[in-house]
Specification:
Layout lengths: L15 H7 L14 H13 L9 E3 L8 H4 L22 H8 E13 L6 E4 L4 E4 L1 E13 L2 E12 L4 E2 L5 E3 L1 E4 L3 E12 L2 E10 L4 H5 L2 E13 L6 E14 L9 E17 L2 E15 L9 E2 L4 E8 L7 E11 L9 E9 L1
Antiparallel strand pairs: 1-8, 2-5, 2-19, 3-4, 5-6, 6-9, 6-10, 7-8, 10-11, 11-12, 12-13, 13-14, 14-15, 15-16, 15-17, 17-18, 18-19
Length: 355
């Protein structure tokens, strides 16, 4: 999890001109109503651009009841420690227990949205609230069954945990310790959807089950999320690069029970460049850019705004080789691209384990 400081950055309309000016690789999220010279250049570009962030959630006392709290209304719970657990090939003719033990996989990840560089140790800058908030942990667990080498079905559950009480934000809001569950999701993972010209496109399609009170209060029926990783096969080079996209569509009852605008569509792009220093240690630079549509909106369906502040992240990870087990331990520093400030720069860490 990650975080930062005050002023809400200016919202900006999406335009092709913006893409061209910054020449950044791009990840997409959305919803409806019912990454060897090239690599060096890319790496330099991201370093000059500066660092990035992860989701958070907070229990908040709002002074202005009309303020949109994106953590409670449309936060997408995606740990930045997503992993692919070791998966042996599917073997059809065997006992039920052999079938179960060789094709059932699971994992747990936790991400720390840690302290900002200018502030108290119990404070982070939460980009979802765009405010100073308590340091957070983001938990994620999943269980899946590998049907065949190209299809995995499973269920996942996430939660966010505020670690401190009484943190006063720049807006005057008071944030307290809490543990909040998100809606569980069912998913289908297609790790080898497309392979072409050295590129591999993996895709995960997930559907949320709106069982939490927060979802029911805003009339959410479900959310459909399509996330993809467009990765380039650069072997035997130590460099890697690619692009993650995330498209999320959310469906609500009509009329909306909430007076606050609800996000129905979000598209996010996360370009990344990585370098493997050794078999178990790597560095990565990445960025996150997203856009959204909310209802009601008098400008129509094609009116899109910037959703959250654009962020950049420098991260490192250690993945020790363990037979039959995936283990990753890492850290990161994250900042806002267009308005870097120590008060909105945070440090954090990640831990993942899978079987």
């Amino acid at each position: 999890m990650n975080s930062f400081d005050q002023k809400k950055p200016l919202r900006h309309r999406w335009s092709l001109r913006r893409f061209a000016q910054h020449q950044i690789h791009f990840r997409w999220r959305g919803g409806f109503f019912l990454q060897d010279s090239f690599c060096i250049q890319a790496l330099t570009l991201f370093v000059l651009g500066v660092f990035f962030t992860l989701p958070t959630f907070a229990q908040v006392t709002l002074r202005d009841s009309t303020q949109i709290n994106k953590q409670t209304t449309d936060q997408i719970a995606i740990p930045n420690t997503q992993f692919d657990s070791p998966q042996p090939p599917f073997i059809p003719e065997q006992s039920f227990w052999d079938l179960f033990s060789k094709n059932v996989h699971g994992g747990y990840s936790v991400s720390l949205m840690g302290s900002r560089l200018n502030g108290n140790s119990n404070e982070t800058y939460n980009i979802y609230l765009q405010d100073v908030a308590p340091v957070q942990l983001f938990h994620g667990a999943r269980l899946s069954f590998k049907v065949n080498p190209d299809l995995e079905l499973g269920i996942s559950q996430t939660a966010v945990q505020n670690l401190f009480d009484g943190v006063v934000g720049n807006t005057g809001n008071i944030y307290n310790s809490s543990f909040i569950w998100y809606d569980p999701t069912v998913f289908a993972n297609l790790p080898n959807l497309i392979k072409i010209n050295g590129w591999r496109i993996s895709t995960t399609v997930s559907l949320s089950l709106s069982v939490t009170q927060a979802s029911q209060d805003v009339g959410k029926i479900t959310s459909l999320d399509i996330s993809q990783n467009w990765g380039k096969d650069t072997f035997p080079s130590n460099w890697s690069y690619g692009l993650m996209t995330d498209t999320k569509m959310s469906f609500y009852t009509s009329p909306l029970p909430s007076t606050l605008p609800q996000q129905t569509f979000m598209f996010a792009i996360t370009p990344y460049v990585g370098y493997r220093i050794s078999s178990s240690f790597s560095l990565q630079l990445s960025g996150n850019f997203d856009w959204e549509h909310r209802i009601p909106n008098s400008q129509g369906f094609f009116d899109f705004d910037s959703n959250l502040p654009d962020t950049g992240k420098i991260s490192c990870s250690i993945t020790p080789p363990i037979s039959g087990l995936f283990l990753s331990i890492g850290g990161y520093i994250q900042d806002i691209f267009w308005n870097p400030d120590l008060a909105t720069t945070i440090v954090g860490g990640d831990f993942s384990i899978g079987f």
